[in-house]
């Protein structure tokens, strides 16, 4: 329980830091969440390195995504992803029906404009974890109604 609170407070401070830096550098014009996403990327890369240290290589991309939805997500958020979908062509959608950083908000639409601030870190976590497993990807998030969130993963083929 105490770990959860510390994690949420740290995440909140990372968001506040990024917003303040944006105000200083851009003159309060547009919020730049790339710093938050990069912090998530670095953390996700390191977490995946520790998690898979004793694991054999994954047999395919889908097996890797299943690992992200179960073990990786459980390590970070203490629950598994609620739904994983794919088109079997390098596009995956992970759905969390009660995303941790959005559960404290009201279900009203007035907070939807602030949702990207709270999902950027997790987009970075996913991208960093996949990068550690040699999967180059673009990760975006979609929030249509609070606290549900869909993470879209587009695997970059080389």
From TrEMBL:
InterPro entries: NO_sig/Golgi_transp_ligand-bd (IPR024096), TRAPP_component (IPR007194), TRAPPC6/Trs33 (IPR037992)
Cellular location(s): Endoplasmic reticulum; Golgi apparatus, cis-Golgi network
UniProt cross-references to Gene3D superfamilies, sorted A to Z: Trafficking protein particle complex subunit 3 (3.30.1380.20)
GO CC annotation: cis-Golgi network; endoplasmic reticulum; trans-Golgi network; TRAPP complex
GO biological process terms on file: endoplasmic reticulum to Golgi vesicle-mediated transport; nervous system development
First-listed, main subcellular location of the protein, grouped into a coarse class: endoplasmic reticulum
Keywords: Endoplasmic reticulum, Golgi apparatus, Neurogenesis
Top-level division of the source organism's lineage: Eukaryota
Main function: Component of a transport protein particle (TRAPP) complex that may function in specific stages of inter-organelle traffic. Specifically involved in the early development of neural circuitry, likely by controlling the frequency and amplitude of intracellular calcium transients implicated in the regulation of neuron differentiation and survival.
Protein name as it appears in the record: Trafficking protein particle complex subunit 6B
